[in-house]
Design a protein that fits this description.
The structure is a single chain. The two termini are 36 Å apart. β2 and β3 form a beta hairpin. The longest helix is centred in the C-terminal third of the chain and has 17 residues. This protein has three domains: 62 residues, Tetrapyrrole methylase, N-terminal domain (Cobalt-precorrin-4 Transmethylase, domain 1, 3-Layer(aba) Sandwich), CATH 3.40.1010.10; 34 residues, no CATH class; 96 residues, no CATH class. The strands form two sheets. Strands 1-4-5 form a three-stranded parallel sheet, with helices on both faces. It is an alpha/beta fold. It is elongated. The protein contains seven helices and five strands, in the order αααααβββαββα.
């Protein structure tokens, strides 16, 4: 890894399971840090948890097991005696947790770290406005629809511009939105879609798309839209723990 990185290559060290659970990931990270080579660690799911789950076996279960021990085989190369204690949901009862750790043989001098979940996105979020190229037909394989499919949240202007006579009258948004909106309804989950609709009492009727209340943002004026749009987007992002 060090030799390739020094040659300007981007290196991926692919491991099964989690690199820090009996995977020697710590040794490799220390070697890279010593050589001042920047790196990123991507957590994985260790086989000690993944394999039992695959067989339908929970490694913890309320009322049965509140402790999980992962041990390396006695003949494994480099095996030495020692333990690592990881506490889940232990912040509120931290004092009791540390008392029990001492009762189980951990010294007051044992190195420790306290951390909470970082809910910020590891990737930058970008707001991008899509433009249909002219009045040409839109192919499903087009760049625009590929971007729509990959987007985290799709926001559309569903304001009515046309009412067709029927019982009840059918309301339609701009033709430049219908294809994208229909495609989004097909490929996105409900929490990934937000349709802004300006109320137009002079155009009564029924909107042809079946939207939930969480998917609609109804407003009367441009000022209302400016006031409501940002909180609505924040509520959408909260569902992904990004706000």
């Amino acid at each position: 890894m060090i030799r390739a990185a020094r040659q300007g290559q981007m290196v991926v060290r692919l491991k099964g399971g989690d690199p820090f659970v009996f995977g020697r990931g710590g040794e490799e990270a220390m070697a890279l840090a010593k050589e001042k080579i920047p790196f990123e660690i991507v957590p994985g799911v260790t086989s000690g948890i993944a394999v039992p789950a695959r067989e339908g076996i929970p490694v913890t279960h309320r009322g049965l097991s509140t402790e999980l021990s992962l041990q390396i085989g006695a003949r494994a190369q480099g095996a030495v005696s020692g333990k690592t204690l990881v506490g889940y949901m232990s912040v509120d009862g931290l004092g009791d947790f540390l008392d029990k750790a001492k009762q189980n043989g951990f010294s007051r001098k044992t190195p420790a770290a306290l951390t909470t979940l970082n809910q910020r996105s590891r990737l930058p979020l970008k707001l991008e406005e899509s433009h249909r190229p002219g009045d040409t037909p839109l192919r499903v394989s087009s760049t625009l629809l590929r971007k729509l499919r990959r987007s985290l949240i799709f926001v559309a202007d569903g304001t009515t511009i046309l009412s067709l006579g029927s019982h009840p009258p059918q309301l339609f948004p701009s033709s430049k939105v219908c294809v994208e909106l229909g495609y989004a309804l097909h490929c996105k989950r409900s929490e990934q879609l937000l349709v802004a609709q300006m109320e137009r009492k002079e155009v009564p009727g029924q909107f042809p798309f079946d939207l939930t209340l969480e998917q609609k943002l109804v407003f009367e004026t441009q000022a209302d839209l400016h006031k409501l749009l940002l909180p609505a987007l924040e509520n959408k992002l909260k569902q992904f723990n990004l706000v």
